[in-house]
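Q: Joint fold for the lines below.
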Amino acid sequence: MEHGRTPDPKPPDNPSAGREGPPGRGLSLAREASLQSRLIARDEQALVELVDLASPWLLGVALGMLSDRDEAEEVVHEAFTIAWRRVDLFDQESGRLLPWLLRITRNRAIDRLRARRRRTLKQRRLEAFGGAGERVAPAVEPDESARPGWHIHDTVHQALAHLPVEQRAVVDLAYFQGLTQSEIAGQLGIPLGTVKTRLRLAFDKLRLRLAGIREWVL
Amino acid sequence: MTSHEWFIEQRQAHVIRALEPDEERAFHEHLAGCAECREATAALERDLAWLPLGAGPVAPRPGLNRSVVDTAMGRRRATAGRLAPLALAASLLLALGSVWWARQTVSRATGAFALRQAELTTALAGARDTLSILRQASTVRHASITMGEYRGGMVILADNQSHRWNVVVYGLPAPHDGQVCQFWFITDSGMVKGVAVPTSVGAATVLTLAMPPGNFQVKGASLTMEESGSAAPAPQGKELAHLIL
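A: Joint structure:
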């Protein structure tokens, strides 16, 4: 049984005031709602605004997972196309616009990763120890702290940094590289049960830390 | 093990898509009939909504955002960054000035509808692209320029996300015959030649410029009056404006 090394984290204070980014560049809750209404009304300018605001973050997610800029940009194209076509089906009660876009992006990136892995499975089986898998370079670029949404990135980054090293490793592989639990076990050379335990402990902590910021805005 | 306890244990793995394909199928089938698990997984998704932002942002290549909008609107197929130079070219076309575009479209009023539609689309894409830089500009610099009786200037609006500038040159007369108003990038490796800037007292010239390729850092810009046709790699003529960002 593994135990976390940090005490129960305290969720961040509600930052609804003063954490919405510079005026005119960030996204207030009201502007997010307005943006969604305009998207549903097929306002192309709303799509332009959404793309300008969100594309760096979507590109960061996709590039971090795929390690291929062209492929990552294709995923961003797909994510916004899906969002534009299905925004009228998006249930505002069950989630928020930007997290929904991020989820679409991550899912598309995982689909591509798994298709890529299937293609190379035969080759990897020939490798003596199963290969080291693909390690992605951090997608973080320096001097970006003025970007809308940076405060969320910073908080998420801190939440991840508080995880014990072995839990952080499985979260990286599962969430940011799209590996299944069995693939993680194979890659790290540890029992599947250990992977599941580490993931459960890690996500219990992340959930506590991140639940407090779910109403934050870019 | 497919008891309800198993599904409870696998909720997190399902939400982050870490289940094996057969486990995922079983979980999906279970979700259809289990309101408790549906609510629990939805709550998990809400709590972890911002977790993807653990990956940092990456500045889009020039033209990507425009291309994304066009793809979503069904005006083109997704081609990733490979068409970025074309998008940039479209932007540059706009940059030569909405006035020029207006004259061209008006003078071609008798042309084919398809041709005009293409021109409008290109100009509109460029206008939107230019506006996106204006909205995102993080640095703005202005230099006054005096040329005899004329008082004009140059404004640079720099978008540090897309690494592009909107450059506005206004209030300057057309150059004398045999001369050209030349834009230069000031870099830590010296001056890099940019575009020739058409000037007219009656209309500002708006340029959308990507940073020149090369292993150097762009520090600012200069505007000079040069002999037309000069192939000199560095300014030879009088400097009209000098801006450090």
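Q: Anything notable?
A: Confidence is low (pLDDT under 50) at residues 80-87 of chain B. Chain B touches chain A through 45 residues (CB under 8 Å).
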